[in-house]
Design brief:
heterodimer; A: 569 residues; alpha+beta; TATA-Binding Protein; five-stranded antiparallel β-sheet; 12 helices; elongated; B: 177 residues; alpha/beta; seven-stranded mixed β-sheet; 7 strands; transmembrane helix (chain A); membrane (chain A); ResB-like_domain (chain A)
Chain lengths: 569, 177
């Protein structure tokens, strides 16, 4: 279909133009029906870039995303989708589960049938689901396309504005003044322009016409906001890049150093404290309950500097930071954050300091340090040598009555030593040692040593035990951890971009919200003066500006009388 | 101007397709740690009881049985002699058997291995790293891996009998030819 888009002023306008780009004459047929209604000034009446007479396939996709209506629908659907994710707990917040079947069982147990449906629909992973990501991508596309389609033509239109506008364009603005004028037009225009300049307008004049404009920059606010939002969205999608995002949990008993999986860092828990409020500090309805005052992990962070991937060698660790982690005070180093998550009261042996004794006299022959994790294999004790033959961290017997360990934790450790040294036979003597001061382990210790003696493996000459195991009611010569702390380890490399995006978005919003783009057009036709004013918001302010400047130039009007829309009603 | 505009349009839509496709693809194919038949097992690099470094690629190209075990797990202990027997029987024909211990102290591992008389390589996992990479839930777990480097079968829990191991070994050796 051929459409004549040439304006009477001679300007060739693109398809879809509402107001002639040059003179401002209304071109849209709807605007021609009633010559008194104020004009639709959106985007200054210019055509969107993508409006075409014969759109082809790519143009149609482009047009789809260019529509603000579609954008609003997309945002609405996304909000609706996002709200679905808040009905039940999301999978990502369930720390200990990893398998689909475990999650399914969890939702079934916690929420019954509703939970089963929720999980089956994939709503337990709403924010990672393909459809939610797709919606975000579509909103992002819509942001880019909508902005580009509008900002470029708008920029062009505002960059080359005609000073003398079509009469209908002026008289159909929201702020209008018309009157007759006698006298020196040029001198009056100069005076009127001067007054507007005092209100910080930029003023252009052209034989018998004037254009005054201020705060055009506020028109770019929404687009700057959109740039910020696009950066924000891209950053959110960037979390999908494996090395950009981490959210995991690490358990550490007191004194333990462990590698943070997936990083070159190691964390150590020096000490964990949990403090409760005393009875006198509690409110009356809390009396008798335990209310936590402080959870604190004294933590150290190490970086591996050498032999990191060598399974044979111990990694070389360099301390990079020390921090007391408590709620709202995370250890933060180079984008890595360690938060206090929870704790468990669990006694765990770290090391003991036993002595080798002469069993008959009780005389100490020397003492040594014995670690529960990776104990060394030989010890020099006085003039004797102890070689560690066997180690069972959690002693038990298997079906064939062979000694074994029940678990990997040193819950009930047992050590088998071969003692060699002066005044004993060259092959030495074998003893078993249970550091745990429980009756059962002491019983086992005695039983095994007795059977070793019967087998001829030892003579019962020695005993291995901790001297003074209890001092002032506390365990002596035994190192143990009372608490295991659980740290939440997070890394979010997208965060700086999210902040930058949010800041740019905020700048755009402020530009658009707190300033208004005001324009005033004026033309003389013989002795007839026509003035039109437009602002994108706060027309009250614009009317006040116009009335003030007119008054200063000798035409007294009330701001109210300038309201074109009001006069119509 | 018009041509430039069109090119811009194509470029923007192409970027959207690329970024969006990546993001959506990422959410569609979230990698699960559970290994199934046909998967390629994750690589490992561990110290052996022989104090040497053992890597996944050292074992590539020949059929391999990868057995995750611990001295604390009775079925693991019980099947160890059967595994050793099968290893002795098939080793000459190219079968490899590797035991990965579940992050125990080397001393504990060594004395058990000595007791049973295991001659195939025993590797020591550290801090459950390899175990996690293989998505282990129960012990023992045994992976039967073909010469092409894909998992033929995953057996969770004890194999117990030599026959049960043997039928699987035969299947594994056949897939080689």
């Amino acid at each position: 279909m051929f459409q004549n888009t040439k304006c009477e002023c001679g300007h060739q306008n693109p398809v879809g133009t509402v107001l002639c780009e040059s003179c401002g004459k209304p071109l849209d047929e709807d605007l021609l029906i009633d010559e008194n209604t104020p004009l639709e000034m959106r985007y200054d009446g210019v055509a969107r870039r993508s409006q075409k007479a014969n759109p082809h396939f790519i143009d149609r996709i482009w047009n789809f995303f260019s529509s603000v209506k579609i954008a609003v629908y997309l945002i609405f659907i996304t909000l609706l989708g996002a709200s679905l994710g808040t009905i039940f707990q999301q999978e990502s917040t369930l720390i200990n589960l990893t398998e689909r079947s475990e999650f399914a069982a969890y939702y079934k147990e916690e929420h019954g049938t509703a939970g089963v449906i929720y999980h089956a629909l994939g709503l337990s992973r709403t924010y990672e689901s393909w459809w939610f990501v797709a919606l975000l991508v579509m909103i992002g596309t819509s942001l880019v396309v909508c902005s580009l389609d509008r900002v470029l033509p708008l920029y062009r239109a505002l960059a080359r504005q005609q000073i003398r506008k079509h009469l209908q364009f002026i008289t159909r603005q929201q702020v209008v003044y018309t009157g007759t004028f006698e006298g020196d037009r040029e001198a009056w225009l100069a005076e009127f322009g001067k007054q507007l300049k005092r209100k910080r307008y930029r003023v252009w004049q052209e034989d018998g016409a004037l254009l005054a404009e201020k705060n055009r920059f506020s028109r770019w606010g929404p687009y700057i906001n959109h740039i910020g939002l696009i950066i924000f969205l891209l950053a959110v999608l960037g979390r999908g890049i494996p090395s950009w995002h981490m959210d995991q949990y690490l358990s550490l008993y007191e004194g333990e150093t462990r590698q943070i999986p997936g990083t070159n860092y190691y964390a150590k828990n020096d000490d964990f404290t949990v403090d409760y409020y005393s009875e006198s500090e509690l409110a009356s309805n809390q009396k008798g309950t335990k209310v936590v005052k402080l959870y604190e992990t004294k933590a150290r962070l190490y970086e591996c500097t050498a032999d990191c991937d060598d399974p044979i060698k111990e990694p070389v660790l360099t301390e990079v930071m020390q921090h007391d982690i408590h709620v709202n005070s995370a250890l933060s180093y180079d984008g890595l954050k360690l938060y206090q998550n929870s704790f468990q009261e669990k006694v765990r042996f770290i090391s003991v300091h036993p002595s080798l004794l002469n069993a008959s006299t009780g005389e100490s022959l020397g003492s040594f340090d014995l670690l529960m994790d990776n104990p060394s294999e030989s010890y020099e004790v006085g003039s004797y040598q102890l070689k560690l033959n066997d180690y069972y961290p959690d002693f038990s017997l298997d079906e064939q009555k062979r000694p074994m360990t029940k678990t990997r934790e040193p819950n009930n450790p047992a050590f088998v030593f071969r003692v060699t040294g002066p005044e004993i036979r060259p092959e030495g003597e074998v003893y078993i040692y249970f550091p745990m001061p429980s009756e059962k382990s002491k019983y086992y210790e005695q039983l095994f040593n007795e059977s070793f003696k019967q087998r001829g493996d030892n003579t019962g000459k020695f005993a291995i035990k901790v001297e003074n195991p209890i001092v002032d009611g506390k365990m002596n010569n035994i190192k143990y951890s009372e608490y295991t702390t659980y740290l939440n380890i997070r890394m979010d490399k997208a965060m700086p971009y999210i902040w930058v995006g949010a800041a740019i978005s905020m700048i755009g919003l402020i530009m658009g919200f707190y300033w208004q783009h005001r324009r005033i057009w004026l033309r003389f036709d013989d002795d007839k003066l026509s003035l039109g004013g437009h602002t994108n918001k706060n027309s009250f302010g614009l009317r006040a500006d116009v009335a003030w400047a007119l008054g200063r130039a000798g035409i007294e009007v009330t701001p109210k009388s300038l309201d074109n829309r009001r006069n119509l009603r | 101007m018009g041509r430039y505009r069109k090119a811009m349009q194509y470029i923007i839509l192409a970027v959207v397709l690329l970024v969006g496709g990546y993001a959506i693809g990422n959410s569609l194919f979230t990698t699960s740690v559970v290994l199934n038949k046909g998967d390629k097992p994750p690589a490992f690099r561990l110290a052996g009881l022989d104090d040497k470094v053992h890597e996944w690629k050292d074992y590539e190209g020949k059929p391999l049985i990868l057995n995750f075990w611990g001295t604390f797990c009775p079925p693991c202990r019980n099947e160890m002699p059967a595994l050793q027997k099968q290893y002795e029987k098939w080793n000459g024909q190219g079968l490899q058997l590797v035991g990965i211990n579940l992050s125990e102290d080397s001393l504990t591992v060594e004395s058990f291995i000595r007791q049973v008389g295991v001659s195939f390589p025993i590797l020591l996992d550290m801090d459950k790293k390899t175990e996690k990479a293989y998505g282990l839930k129960q012990y023992p777990t045994t992976f039967f891996i073909t010469a092409k480097g894909t998992i033929q079968e995953v057996v969770i829990g004890g194999l117990l009998t030599e026959e049960e191991i043997e039928t699987r070994v035969e299947r594994l050796m056949k897939s080689n030819s």
